[in-house]
Amino acid sequence: MSLVHAHDLKAFYGDAQALFGVDFRVEQGEVVAIIGANGAGKSTFLKALTGLVKVPRDAVLFDGQPIGSLPPGEIVKRGLAKVPEGRRLFPSLSVEENLLMGAFAGRPGPWDLARLYAMFPILKEKRLNPGTSLSGGQQQMVAIGRALMANPSVLLCDELSLGLAPIVIQEIYAALPRITAEGMSVVVVEQDVSVAMRVSQRVVCLQEGRVSLEGASSALTREQISAAYFGVYA
Amino acid sequence: MPLLALHDVHKSYGAVKVTDGISLSVAEGETLGILGPNGAGKTTLFNLISGDVRADAGRITYEGRDIADLKPHQRCRAGIGRSYQVPQPFGAMTVFENLVTAACFGAGEDEQQAWQTAHEVLQQTGLLAHANQPAGGLTLLNRKRLELARALATRPKLLLLDEIAGGLTEPEAKELVDELRRIKASGVTMVWIEHVVHALLAIADRLFVINFGQPLAEGLPADVMANPEVKRVYMGIES
Q1: Model ipTM?
Q2: DSSP label at B137?
Q3: Are A54 and A129 in contact (CB under 8 A)?
Q4: Which residue(s) pair with A12 in the sheet?
Q5: Looking at the DSSP assignment, which residues form a beta bridge with residue A40?
Q6: Which of A110, A128, B34, B54 could form a disulfide with B193, with the two C-beta atoms 3.0–4.6 Å apart?
Q7: How far apart are CA A106 and CA A99, in angstroms?
């Protein structure tokens, strides 16, 4: 049984349909990258998994249980936490307070402040600074840390590399093995195809709200991915 | 005479030196690319040029004139247009209204001229179909387009672009580069901060790299990208 299983997932914004029957699975400990053009439905898909967009209850199963449209807080408690696009730190809170907000909604587990500070030592140095005074890369570390403080089984990351320098993207993704070491699954929505293929075991390409390509990252070619972006089904 | 020149410019926030002795010049019609790790002080450089923050020391000249005493809107009227890293449209206004506002207040056009400008820029940036949509409801791609469009509607001679390719896919970034090529061909001088390096390299005449508020490298794009320090500090490649 897959840890996350979205089945025939459809999502709407008013009359506009954004997802057209997406089938998607994540296994325990797996890193899956979701790629696709802007407007393809990637962020909507993550919102549908986390209760931020209404979907039928049984369209999303987590650990075999239907969770579609449960309140977002309840979904976090079950074990799905999201790093939102654009970091979305609480501007009035310090780095440490931002991190503690993640634990507030989550469950007990191995991730705590000490462990996070060991992974991102710069956050310990800046723990009393306002979260939004940090550089873009450091803010992304806070956003990841805040989600990890909920001790999820599945970490959903929306556009981790957005607005970051190549060296900073490397630093952020260097943390992935430590996050997955104890079996946590990670889903990354990633615009940079090279990064997506390097960090994941499996790639899913969305195109106009549908899965246009899926396969092992090591087996897919750049040509197949380009075709999936443009809507020529491989 | 360069269109824009910075002479030993300094800016600190408390004890943190974010701009620490930057000197650079941009010739008319040139496109200068700015690179640097996050927190290097790139956006602060734009804030200094656009007047959003004041320099602690040093001089900034535009068309040969010291602009220290000009307020941001006066610099905009003088032809310095900019986009912001996080798009900040007037969310409740339509795309068209956003552009009319930019043309009226940024370029000093009367309403009739501003309507004409807004229409031209809508066509130029591919936003015509979204003209009557509230800006707050746009997708990321279209918000980025609007950010560029608003800067263009102020009729800039010098266009400062802050990470407008971030979050775009490769085909989308290519479309943007094509658009910027057309803007460049029309004679607009550009300074572009960008982490999407392949997009920047497609158009920049010269690169300027900053690290910890200080200049790290400057020159032709191929030379700068081959610089071992740039590779190490920015790309994370040890040579």
Answers
A1: 0.74
A2: G
A3: no
A4: A17
A5: none
A6: B34
A7: 11
Phi-psi region of B26 (alpha: psi -120 to 50; beta: other; left: phi over 0): beta
Buried-state track A53-76, b at ≥16 Cβ within 10 A, e below 16: bebeeebbbbbeeebbbbeeeebb
Would the CB atoms of B37 and A167 count as touching at under 8 Å? Answer: yes
Q: Could you tell me if A39 lies within 8 Å of chain B, comparing CB atoms?
A: yes
Give yes or no for B85 touching A (CB within 8 A).
Answer: yes
Enumerate the β-bridge partners of residue B191: B32, B160
Give the span between the Cα atoms of B32 and B30, in whole angstroms. 6
User: What is the Cα Rg of chain B in Å?
Assistant: 18
Among chain A residues, the shortest Cα distance to B212 is held by: A135
Query: Is A196 touching B (CB cutoff 8 A)?
Result: no
Q: Print burial letters for A117-131: b (CB count within 10 Å at least 16), e (below 16).
A: bebbebbeebbeebb
Q: What is the pLDDT of residues A83-92, one digit of tens each?
A: 998 888 998 9
Smallest CA–CA distance from B40 into chain A, residue: A135
Residue A190 in contact with residue A196, Cβ under 8 Å?
yes
For the stretch A51-84, pLDDT in tens is: 999 999 999 999 999 999 899 999 999 999 999 9
Q: How far apart are CA B120 and CA B127, in angstroms?
A: 10
CB contact under 8 A, B167 and A193: no
The token pair at B175 is 């479309």
Chain A CA closest to residue B167: A162
Token duo for residue A192: 């940079």
